[in-house]
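protien #1 (seq + structre)
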Amino acid sequence: MLSDRYGRVATSLRVSLTDRCNLRCTYCMPAEGLDWLAKPHLLTDDEVVRVVTVAVGLGVRDVRLTGGEPLLRRGIVGLVERLSTLTPRPALSLTSNGIGLERLAGPLAAAGLDRVNVSLDTLDPARFRAITHRDRLDDVLSGLASAAAAGLAPVKVNAVLLRGVNDDEAASLTRWALGAGYEPRFIEQMPLDAQHAWDRAQMVTAEEILGLLRAELDLEPDPAHRGSAPAERWQVYENGRLLGPVGVVGSVTRPFCGACDRIRLTADGQIRNCLFSRGEVDLRGPLRSGCDDAALAALLRGATQAKLAGHGIDEPGFLQPPRPMSAIGG
């Protein structure tokens, strides 16, 4: 197993397929974009499959494909198909901005993808353009509908509320998502932007998000056991009628580090044992130097063993990771 010094066992692997993205969300990267990784630096499909195969042999049961925007990865359908044949078969999910899902949701479902999370911060076209610097709201909405039609359920909608920008949409986004058959999740803005402009005082906290929801809706704690899930779930009622569940991910103010079961593989082949880690373990070099699976397994075990007790955001010496979220993988 992939265990650390605190008794946690990593059973979930986040695999970034690219650092590229076709949106420019203000809380993630500058409008002009970033210097993308050169193709030779990216893991090949064969290398990705090999790492995931070794990880599955060490107890990983959940594989999430991320980016950047993973749908920009050429051959993603074939990669999903290969991963779906592993034994034991891991659960396969994908985090996307939704652009491209209208075309790819069906083929991905047929290849073995189980479900998707789609990022969507607003239903207002002007606000969407202001947040993402792109006029692609209709494409995201079409992608969501296609994912649901393809059976990639539950379709979760991830939203980041920005103070003074879209924080008045908490309840309306929830009503819309649940009415469409999606599960909304609100995520605290994290210190992972490329600009290093994150300001804790400006972040809309989990408690504030719950307050915004409770101002218009009734919430009851979800009785289901949370386990290692990052979201606290609530059942939403309006006028006594159950609408469905909503999740709130308080990564900063209500951290869930004690139950964390995740490690991450970056698109250029580095293992990170925490989203906020400032250190990485290189797998690309050993992969391309001919190391065997036992050596890969040892590297994965060592990286997991070195995991800290928590992300340390509240500690005086906290430093934001040098890589932004788009280069780490969500």
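ok now protien #2
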Amino acid sequence: MERMAIFSLFLVLLLGLLSGCGGSGTKSTAGNGQSGGAKVIKVANYFAEEHPQNIALREKFKKIVEEKSGGSLKVQIYPNSTLGAEKEFYDGVRNGTIEMGIPGLIMQNDIPKMGVPEWPFLFKDFEHVKKVLNGPIGKEIAKDLEKKHGVVPLAWSANGFRMFSANRTIDSMDDFEGLRMRMPNIPNYITIGKLLGTNVTPMPISEVFTALEQKVVDGQDNPIATLRASGWYEVQTDVLESKHMFSPNIYVINKKFWDSLTKEQQTIIQEAAKEAANYEFELMEKSYEEDKKFLERNYSATS
């Protein structure tokens, strides 16, 4: 009996030990992102929620990353300057408080060659843009981002061909004279505005609607997809289809966060970014004529 009692006690201890090992294995799996240990990727941008940029993020990037990673990666999208204006969220990506962002080329203030794609009248059409930016030239332009700013470039995407909107008709070069024009706070833009004879007022995109509504500025320049998605047509009367500049965006991710990922996760993110960016290019190109007709109808209704 005494031996049986000792044997029974031994079995209880052994089962308890095995149970403990099983529990430890479950925790290890969760830590690898299989259940409850997913890494979150916050993606910040300044576009309105229904802009093609955010549609592509929702329908392509988020879906692909979460499905292909098996739930080890989760994507949270923050549109419309939710995490700050362009400079603020880009700085957030640089310092790691935000994992990922889709800024314009604001970094050209520190890395001048990043401003090359926004030289006036450089590109003929969307195909020309894609051929240049997705080739060796695009790689060369973006290659210093990792070394100088601590962000890894993932893919080029489209803001679009820029044009001027205003609260008056622009029929000639003389009509630019004295026009109070909102421009991004980037030397390339400011120089163009001054050469046209406008009074340039730099401000973040998040402040544009109020500035136009309150007539702090007379006009602004952006692609018509942004003009429509942001509702600026409600406080403007005219658009000049100048296409004076193509404005790209670029998917970037914090370098330290990137290095914390597995090679498989990096590949998933890289491929998802490229697919989403290509899709956004398609949406921008397809929506151009539709956006143009929409603005013509709305301007006619308010004039």
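Residues 34-302 form a domain with the D-Maltodextrin-Binding Protein; domain 2 fold (CATH 3.40.190.170).
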